[in-house]
DNA sequence: GAGTTTGAAACT
DNA sequence: CAGTTTCAAACTC
């Protein structure tokens, strides 16, 4: 069972030697652990094929700055259709994440990583559970990590380094445990025997759902997690953990279907093996275990509670969930380690924060930009095609309708059970925001439009528009919301995502992602629309969140195409014609992209760069500093060139992105509400302006200046995190478009 | 929904 | 690099 072969798992290899497998990683406990498990044959090192596969893997963003960063110019083009396909899932073991801060997994052992694994399915396990071990890109980690909600719980442990990730959504069987920065030791004790007895004696019962039991074995508390033999025939498994100590018990169970308890992987001496309680349900395929382990890393979410939760698996869902999980066949150890190490290093309690900055530099220039700044946060967009099987509840896609149902059901159940549904929604992934990316994958249901929800006062009544919302066609069938704690919001950057971020009161520093009510009919309706109708439909305000390209003559191979510019393939919501920006034309896409980049290396770089500091205090300071210098902290990289719109309409990229014009702009008659171009007067200068068609003028009490400052602050803070001066109600807030913004 | 305006991208 | 053309989004009616 154990694989005698070493180095079966090839860590991801990018074009740079800096990303080759680290000996440290390979010698890490986890790596050793995997060696003993995985029969998976070595795979050719290849970077993730999420996007344009020929392009090299971007290195982690500067927030994870490491001397090992690969400065090589890299670009990434996301392949929606492949993004969530389990068949394309690739496993990356550890080291990629380690590049972040030069922290090796082995340096940050994971203990108490309690995992309630899904039970093994005897049927078709091979096909479902086999985890293809391949390298993966960090971005994939991030996106997928963010794709699923988990609950990050700081335990009651006095150890500040302990952070628990509790998956709370669709796979309650999986719990990410605690991350500890200190090493553990393994002690011999008799618990193993006792536990084994317990397992063997107690596991032959037909249990319907996973359960966790704490048993007292020789005075030591041992948590036993069982996943029972399901009525559908799926097997039972048991995992255990000594709760009394940080130690990982070495236990030899007769069966090899391991159900690892945390720490085993990373404990220096951990050799945790596990057994399954049911003899008839022997799991002889370690791939499943590996797959499940990898799934651990798939979940990310937001910090929420102060206490851990025990998730109860609904037996009705278990089978389905497992199938969903297996379909994912994720490989996330590296991602987990990556994130965990960041958690520990940053002291963050939320993976969402880690998820920030996960967008990878598109090229060397961008990398430089990133490196030169403290990349703060970002929520990137997950991208998928309408055809992709994408089981995330909050990023439902038509193709994942069944999964969506499952999620919804879970949500409902959770609500009924008094659970906290507010944290069910996955955070949109994506960080950094692809420069040009609009990634409005909202349309795909895979991204969220994370935009400030304007109050009614934000716009002139005559022009009041509905705030961007998730396109109906890709939304769950029920309205959902989830709250994001201040700790997360504080680090958020905002981009056009599929979801609407509704800023709560500034005082509570929280925000709620609101999922509009939705219905499948609309989904179907939209999908049945002709391209012409989609064209119209797609760009209505109410569907802004799902804006897709509408190219007719560019074949979606020019920067005119927002999808192409964003580095994503066109998909179902697009109304483009003769589109070549599709996976089947990958070669052409890549070729064109390279051609464009050869002409302009920054063609796919972010247009808008914001500077955001890592702490509110710093942000304030920076704001104050910036106010003295420029009207806005964010700048359009190249500057606009408006002649007639006076930078007051969305024709203007600066205005559209909610940033002020700068000296780099060549606009004429600039009246950008977010900050006019230098030379056209100070921000606080009294001037008449017209915003969204409504003219207003500041008065002598400095109101305008204050308003401008508020805009300023809002931008600076990635708006949800704004505990500064609230916007003046009378301010006619232009609608933000964070599509092309990168936050630093 | 059709047509116009606009400015970025592409081309020369 | 500047001028022109093409293009698609934004906007208006």
Description:
The chain is an alpha+beta fold and 744 residues long. The chain has three domains: 336 residues, no CATH class; 240 residues, no CATH class; 136 residues, no CATH class. The chain is built from 21 helices and 15 strands. The two termini are 48 Å apart. The protein binds a DNA duplex (12 and 13 nucleotides) through loops. It holds the Pfam family TCR.
Q: What secondary-structure arrangement, pairings included, does this model have?
A:
Layout: H1 23-26, H2 29-37, H3 80-83, H4 95-98, H5 125-129, H6 138-147, E1 150-153, E2 163-167, E3 175-179, H7 191-202, E4 211-217, E5 220-227, E6 237-242, H8 286-296, E7 302-303, H9 315-328, H10 333-346, H11 351-355, H12 364-371, H13 401-416, E8 480-484, H14 486-489, E9 500-503, E10 511-515, H15 520-527, H16 531-538, H17 562-566, H18 586-599, E11 608-610, H19 616-629, E12 635-636, H20 653-657, E13 688-691, E14 694-697, H21 703-716, E15 741-743
Parallel strand pairs: 1-7, 11-15
Antiparallel strand pairs: 1-2, 2-3, 4-5, 5-6, 8-10, 9-10, 11-12, 13-14
Helix pairs in contact: 19-21
The protein binds a DNA duplex (12 and 13 nucleotides) through loops.
**Low-confidence runs (pLDDT<50, min 5 residues)?**
1-26, 38-192, 202-218, 220-523, 531-546, 612-632, 682-740
Biggest sheet statistics: 4 strands, mixed
What distance lies between the first and last C-alpha atoms, to the nearest angstrom? Answer: 48 Å
Supply the number of structural domains: 3
C-alpha-based Rg, rounded: 25 Å
Strand order of the largest sheet: 3-2-1-7
Number of helices: 21
Helix content: 25-40%
Mean pLDDT, to the nearest integer, reads 44
What is the number of beta strands? 15
Q: What portion of the residues fall into strands of 2 or more residues?
A: 5-15%
Please identify the structural class as seen in this structure. Answer: alpha+beta
GO molecular function, one term: DNA-binding transcription factor activity
Main location: nucleus
Pfam families: TCR
Subcellular location: Nucleus
């Amino acid at each position: 069972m154990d694989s005698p072969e070493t180095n079966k798992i090839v860590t991801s290899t990018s074009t740079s030697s800096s990303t080759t497998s680290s000996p440290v990683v390979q010698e890490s406990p986890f790596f050793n652990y995997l060696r003993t498990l995985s029969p998976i044959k070595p795979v050719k090192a290849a970077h993730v094929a999420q996007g344009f596969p020929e392009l090299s893997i971007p290195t982690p963003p500067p927030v994870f700055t490491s001397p090992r960063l690969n400065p090589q110019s890299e670009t990434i083009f996301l392949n929606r259709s492949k993004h969530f396909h389990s068949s394309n899932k690739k496993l990356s073991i550890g080291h990629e994440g380690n590049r972040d801060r030069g922290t090796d997994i082995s340096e940050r052992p994971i203990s108490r990583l309690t995992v309630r694994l899904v039970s093994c399915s005897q049927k078709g396990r091979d096909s479902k559970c086999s985890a293809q071990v391949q390298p993966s890109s960090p971005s994939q980690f991030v996106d997928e990590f963010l794709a699923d909600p988990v609950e990050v719980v700081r335990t009651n442990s006095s150890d500040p380094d302990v952070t628990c990730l509790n998956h709370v959504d669709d796979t309650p069987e999986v719990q990410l445990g605690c991350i500890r920065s200190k090493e553990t030791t393994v002690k011999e004790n008799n618990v193993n025997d006792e536990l084994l007895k317990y397992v063997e004696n107690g596991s032959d019962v037909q249990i319907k759902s996973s359960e966790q039991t704490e048993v007292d074995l020789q005075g030591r508390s041992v948590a036993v997690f069982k996943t029972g033999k399901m009525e559908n025939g799926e097997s039972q498994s048991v995992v255990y953990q000594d709760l009394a100590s940080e130690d990982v018990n070495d236990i030899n169970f007769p069966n090899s279907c391991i159900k690892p308890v945390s720490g085993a992987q990373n404990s220096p001496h951990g050799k945790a093996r596990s057994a399954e309680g049911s003899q008839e349900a022997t799991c002889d395929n370690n791939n499943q275990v590996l797959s499940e382990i990898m799934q651990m890393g798939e979940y990310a979410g937001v910090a929420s509670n102060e206490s851990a939760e025990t998730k109860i698996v609904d037996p009705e869902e278990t089978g389905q969930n497992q199938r969903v999980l297996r379909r994912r066949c994720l490989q996330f150890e590296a991602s987990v380690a990556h994130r965990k190490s960041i958690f520990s290093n940053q002291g963050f309690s939320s993976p969402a924060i880690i998820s920030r900055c996960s967008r990878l530099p598109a090229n060397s220039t961008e990398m430089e930009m990133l490196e030169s700044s403290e990349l703060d946060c970002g929520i990137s967009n997950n991208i998928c095609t309408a055809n992709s099987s994408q089981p995330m509840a909050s990023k439902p896609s038509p193709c994942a309708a069944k999964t969506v149902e499952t999620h919804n059901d879970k949500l409902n159940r959770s609500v009924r059970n008094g659970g906290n549904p507010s944290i069910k929604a996955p955070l949109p992934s994506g960080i950094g925001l692809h420069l040009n990316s609009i990634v409005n994958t909202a349309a795909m249901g895979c991204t969220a439009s994370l935009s400030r929800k304007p109050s009614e006062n934000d716009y002139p009544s005559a022009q009041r528009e509905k705030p961007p919302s998730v396109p109906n066609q890709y939304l769950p069938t029920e309205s959902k919301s989830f709250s994001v704690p201040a700790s997360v919001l504080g680090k958020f950057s905002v981009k056009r995502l599929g979801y609407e971020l509704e800023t709560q009161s500034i005082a509570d520093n929280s925000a709620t992602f609101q999922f509009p009510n939705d219905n499948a009919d609309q989904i179907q309706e939209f999908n049945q629309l002709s391209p012409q109708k989609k064209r119209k439909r797609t760009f209505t305000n109410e569907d802004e969140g799902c804006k897709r390209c509408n190219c007719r003559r560019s074949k979606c191979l020019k920067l005119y195409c927002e999808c192409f510019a964003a580095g994503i393939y066109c998909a179902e919501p697009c109304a483009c014609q003769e589109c070549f920006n599709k996976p089947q034309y990958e070669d052409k896409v890549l070729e064109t992209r390279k051609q464009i980049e050869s002409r302009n290396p920054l063609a796919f770089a972010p247009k808008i760069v914001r500077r955001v500091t890592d702490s509110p205090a710093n942000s304030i300071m920076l704001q104050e500093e910036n106010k003295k210098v420029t009207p806005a902290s964010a700048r359009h990289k190249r500057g606009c060139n408006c002649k007639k719109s006076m930078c007051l309409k969305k024709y203007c990229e600066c205005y559209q992105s909610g940033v002020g014009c700068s000296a780099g702009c060549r606009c004429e008659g600039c009246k950008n509400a977010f900050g006019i171009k230098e030379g056209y007067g100070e921000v606080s200068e009294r001037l008449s302006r017209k915003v969204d068609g409504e003219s207003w003028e500041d008065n002598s009490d400095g109101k305008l200046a204050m308003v401008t400052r508020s805009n300023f602050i809002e931008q600076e803070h990635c708006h949800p995190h704004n505990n500064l001066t609230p916007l003046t109600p009378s301010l006619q807030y232009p609608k933000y478009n964070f599509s092309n913004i990168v936050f630093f």
